[in-house]
Amino acid sequence: MTRKQTTEKATSKERTKQGILAGVLGLISNLILFVSKFMIGILSGSVSIMADAINSLSDTASSVLTLIGFKIAAKPADKEHPYGHERFEYISGLFVSIIISYVGFTFLESSFQKIIHPENIILTPVVFLVLIFSIGLKFIQGKMYSRIAAKIDSNALRATSTDSYNDVFTTLAVLISAGVEWLTGWRIDGYIGFALALYILYSGGMMVRDFVYELMGSRPTTEEIEEMEDSLNHYDQILGYHDLLVHNYGPSKRFASVHIEVDDSLDLNQAHRIVDRIEKDFKERLAVDLVCHLDPVPVSNERYLAVLQTLREIVTTTAEGLKIHDFRVIKEGKILQFDVVVPQQCHFSDEKLEEIIREQVKQKIGKYQVEITFDHNYLL
């Protein structure tokens, strides 16, 4: 499914409606789970069941934050937030992740105490049935989150869906712990609770990392980059493109900029029609607000093309993966001006690269003043 199809299915109003629905359903189901687990945890004296109950309580807080997050994220752009409020969805997700991590630390302490001072678990038919009910309800909850996340393209709900499925496995672990003690008399409850705590801490930490990356401005996915590059490659009217930059201001608000190379014999109106078409196609097909910068290339100038070809050979043989773009001959042919794209795996510093390239230009092209801008493109 393309980004356009996803966006068409989830207008701003529909996105808010579906997000709030997920929050309400999650709130109700998590409250039911918390109350039932907490009661049987007290009756059975099981720290792992109590820990699982508190985990359901944290999931209840998550549902409340989901409701608040989608409500604020739906607010339109204003003077203080010209790109809208969609990033608040990441903020609410970050708070949820912090809560989960804190609960993990609490579980770790209580489980450690249970290992030192083990107690019997009272396994009754009621305990067994509630745990089975918990597994079923959490599985349904995970399915619900997953479907709504796909419908409105929400990473926050995808994370919540994963958390629900994780709860299915952790509750199974609790059930196994109680069953093992009932059958063998081995008191492994504290160890199971300790393992659960470590798992919750790990999940919380990974979620904190992911949402911090989103707030800081994470790298677009490989699929998104390939979609944009594939779209640009279909335009025969352009000679090439470079400096593709993507900015994310929320799950459905993406902006990008790119430099488009065109024949310098085109007049301004012709060039404008080309970039205008590209920008409109990006908006309609990929739901990306694109801004194109024009780079005219003198394709009929034989001297220019000869120097460019030599420069490319110099740059590509200096280090593996180097590329050149934005080549200009200015100040009556006295200055060569160009950009060099440096891949992440390059072992040379910019200063060393510049030294090598300047010397090669002097030997193979002539005595020119050389102005080099180094681009470190992390989308590659």
UniProtKB/TrEMBL annotation:
The keyword Membrane applies. It comes from the Bacteria. It is found in: Membrane. Residues 220-296 form the Cation efflux protein cytoplasmic domain. It is a multi-pass membrane protein. Pfam families: Cation_efflux (PF01545), ZT_dimer (PF16916). The chain crosses the membrane at residues 20-43, 90-108, 120-140, 168-185, 191-212. SUPFAM superfamilies: Cation efflux protein cytoplasmic domain-like (SSF160240), Cation efflux protein transmembrane domain-like (SSF161111). Belongs to the cation diffusion facilitator (CDF) transporter (TC 2.A.4) family. PANTHER family: MANGANESE EFFLUX SYSTEM PROTEIN MNES, MITOCHONDRIAL METAL TRANSPORTER 1-RELATED. This is Cation transporter. It comes from Candidatus Enterococcus courvalinii.
